[in-house]
Design goal:
Elements (H helix, E strand, L loop, with lengths): L1 H10 L7 H46 L11 H34 L6 H22 L2
Helix pairs in contact: 2-3, 2-4, 3-4
């Protein structure tokens, strides 16, 4: 018992954390977790979009060299469009989920910082959409 009393007295001189500060730190950790999750989805979507567009360009260059891919139900161009579209859909769904989560935090706790990850998701979506349109409309 004497030990516990001594430990408590040594803690008395330290700064105590107020519940509001604790809540603010928990809010910041939660928001950052949502940001990291969206950034992970951005990396995944960027990989899918890049892979799809690279496939499209590779087979486009082969076609210019006179090498024709075999006729199949799902050719290289269609597969590239599928990959780019999958990346864009994944990014859209992740952005929607992120937005819902951030709005929930704002509703419960008031002011929550703006999301830089959301801006990056919009930028990658725009670039992916340009790549998708290039793959669809350029033979």
């Amino acid at each position: 018992m004497a030990r516990q009393g001594k430990a408590m007295s040594s803690l008395e001189g330290e700064k105590t954390v107020h519940p509001s500060e604790s809540n603010e730190l928990a809010l910041a950790r939660t928001r950052l977790a949502y940001e990291r999750t969206l950034l992970a989805w951005i990396r995944t979507a960027t990989g899918l979009i890049t892979f799809g567009f690279s496939l499209y360009k590779f087979f486009q260059y082969q076609r210019q060299e006179g090498i024709e891919p075999p006729n199949r139900l799902l050719g290289p161009r269609e597969f590239a469009i599928l990959m780019i579209g999958t990346g864009l859909i994944a990014l859209l769904l992740a952005t929607i989920e992120h937005t819902v989560n951030i709005r929930m935090l704002r509703k419960q706790y008031g002011h929550v910082q703006r999301s830089l990850a959301g801006f990056m998701a919009a930028l990658i979506s725009l670039l992916g959409l340009i790549g998708l349109l290039a793959a669809i409309f350029h033979q």
